[in-house]
Each structure stands twice: as structure tokens, then as C-alpha cells.
Specification:
Radius of gyration: 29 Å
Helix content: 10-25%
CATH architecture of one domain: Sandwich
Shape: rod-shaped
Number of strands: 8
CATH class of one domain: Mainly Beta
Strand content: 25-35%
CATH topology of one domain: Immunoglobulin-like
Largest sheet: 4 strands, mixed
Distance between the termini: 84 Å
Low-confidence stretches: none
Mean pLDDT: 79
Length: about 160
């Protein structure tokens, strides 16, 4: 029996270790993403980057919203170019909304739009109380029972 985990793999950040293990167990290949195309990269041990191809959209057309454990990226074309006679439209400019589920303690650090690519930087910030810590082992001085030779006890 095989389960297709690609919808979960495509829209979550920070669960990559779990999904990698599940993919190896099931042998399922991940499917290609839909519009707009995007990548999810690991840029450090606790750092991630989502890169989305948003050609034709400007900063004022795109909104990012992080709430609870979800990152929502929306884009709507606000300006229309009237009087333009387009012979062929190969650059998609349709509105979209993409949601990404974020793992616990993954926060959005920032976003930038560069050369038609939207970069969203994320970081896993585990609270100090939940991080692994070393517990020192206390050594107690061994108690030595005073020993006396049998002759001294009898006397």
C-alpha cells in the first residue's frame, strides 16, 4: 500500500526530516508543484527559504501573512493596463493564494522580492527550556567506615 505525501511535503516547512523518512519508507516520488512554482530550501541547520516565481507581480501586489502555524502568500494584480493589445500571454498574472504549514517554533524572519523571485526566510527558534541540555552527574564522597582490628574491638 502506498500513500502520496506530496501535498503535505509541498506545503510544509520544518517537517522535512519526518517527510524524508516517510518518503524513503513508502518509495513515493513527490509530484510537481502547481502555480506559482516554488522551492523550499534548507539554508542552515535551523534555517529555511521559500522561493516563489512571481514574475509580473510587484511588492504592492503581494501580501504575506503569518498566523499561528500557517504562512499565507497572496498576490493580486492591482493595476490593469488598458489599451494594450496582447497577441500572446505567456506570463501568467492571475491571482493566487498559497498556504504553507509551519512546524512548531518556525518563524518568518523576512521576505524580499528580487528579479521576479519572492524569497521568504524562515527560522526554527526552539525555546531554551525545550533545547537538550547536559545534566551533570554529582559525585558524592564515598563514606569509609572506620575499620578496627579485631583485637581493639575485644579490648
Amino acid at each position: 500500500m502506498r500513500y502520496d505525501l506530496s501535498p503535505l511535503y509541498r506545503s510544509t516547512v520544518g517537517f522535512d526530516r519526518l517527510f524524508h523518512l516517510l518518503d524513503n519508507l513508502s518509495g513515493v516520488e513527490t509530484a510537481q508543484p502547481t502555480y506559482p512554482p516554488y522551492n523550499i530550501e534548507r539554508t542552515g541547520e535551523n534555517a529555511y527559504r521559500i522561493t516563489m516565481a512571481v514574475a509580473g507581480f510587484g511588492e504592492k501586489d503581494i501580501t504575506l501573512e503569518a498566523r499561528e502555524s500557517t504562512l499565507v502568500v497572496k498576490a493580486e494584480k492591482t493595476e490593469t493596463q488598458e489599451g494594450q493589445d496582447v497577441l500572446y500571454r505567456g506570463i501568467a498574472s492571475r491571482s493566487f493564494e498559497r498556504r504553507f504549514q509551519l512546524a512548531d517554533y518556525v518563524v518568518v524572519k523576512g521576505a524580499s522580492l528580487e528579479n521576479g523571485l519572492l524569497h521568504v526566510d524562515l527560522e526554527r527558534q526552539v525555546p531554551e527550556a525545550l533545547k537538550p541540555r547536559q545534566i551533570p552527574i554529582a559525585t558524592t564522597g564515598a563514606k569509609v567506615i572506620e575499620t578496627k582490628p579485631a583485637e581493639q574491638i575485644a579490648a
